[in-house]
Amino acid sequence: MGIKLYYTTVTASRTVKSQQAEVIRILDSKSIQYELIDISVGGELRDEMRSKAGDPTAVPPQLFNEDNYCGNYEMFSEAVEADTVEQFLKMA
Questions:
Q1: Of 29, 39, 87, 90, which residue is least crowded by CB atoms under 10 Å?
Q2: Where in the cell is it found (predicted)?
């Protein structure tokens, strides 16, 4: 599967929770298949996400197409506004 969404099931941040839920809702509404990767199950997944994103402080949600970094919530949101989600996810 191409699209990977790094997220967390364990967070006290309402912002992170709402951003993750919005990304999932939009992907589902566009019938875009994706794989959820829960970084809360181990620190190595969080480190992997940050390494792939090229940002040692990256927080979920982070989107990838395979191992190609697509962006974070803010970048995804801009793509939704511009109706360029498929290009953002490197699907087009």
A1: 29
A2: Cell projection, Ruffle membrane; Cytoplasm, Cytosol; Nucleus
Token reading at 38? 């829960």
- The pLDDT value recorded for residue 1 is 59
Instruction: Count other C-beta atoms under 10 Å from residue 39's C-beta.
Output: 24
Residue ranges covered by each domain of the chain: 3-89
Domain over 3-89 is classified CATH 3.40.50.720: no
For residue 60, the tally of other CB atoms under 10 A from its CB is 25
- Nearest residue to 61 via CA among 80, 83, 46, 51: 46
Q: What is the pTM of this model?
A: 0.94
- Please give the single-letter amino acid code of residue 14: R
CA dihedral 12, 30, 92, 37 (to 10 degrees): 30
